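#struct-help
A.M.: can someone run this one for me? Single chain, 163 residues.
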Amino acid sequence: MDSQLYNKLQTTAMNYMQSIRPTLAGSNNPNVEAILSNFDPNFLMDWGHKRFVSTTSTLQDQITGQEFVTHMSKMAQGLETWSIEVQQTIVDTKQRKVMVRGDFFMIPKGSGPVSERTVLNDIIFVFAMDENGEKLVSATEFIDPVASAEIGRLMAANKPDNA
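D.P.: on it. C-alpha cells below:
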C-alpha cells in the first residue's frame, strides 16, 4: 500500500470535515471559503440513500461546490449551531476514495432546552479525489432520513409564521 497516498487522501477528507464545521464553535456560520478550497473546479455532490432521495425533491439533483455552500448556508440559517465528531474513515488508495462516517449534532433554533433540540444525524460521506489526492472531485452524502425529518420539524416549528 502506498502510505504516502493513503495519508494524503485521509488528510484531504479530514480537511473537508474540518471545513464544514461552523467558523466559530457555537455559531451557525459556515466557512464558505474553507469549504470551497477543498473542491476540484468540476466538483459535484449528490445524496443517498436512493429511496429517501427519490422522495425528497431538494436532494435529487447533483450540485456544484458553489451550489453546495449555498445549500449549506440556507440550512445553517435554521440552526443555532452544529458540531461534528468523525467516527470512522476508510481509505481506498486504488480508487482514490475515502468514506467518512460522522456524528453531526445539529441544534435547530428554537426555545426549550438544547438537549431536547439536539438531533444526532449519522452522516456518511463517500469522497472521490483527484489524481493527486488533494481535491475532492465528487461526494455522496448519505444522511439519516429520520434525523433529517426531525430537524425539519424543529425548524418548521421555529418559523415566525408558526409563532
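A.M.: thanks! The two ends are 58 Å apart (CA to CA).
D.P.: also worth noting: The mean pLDDT is 94.
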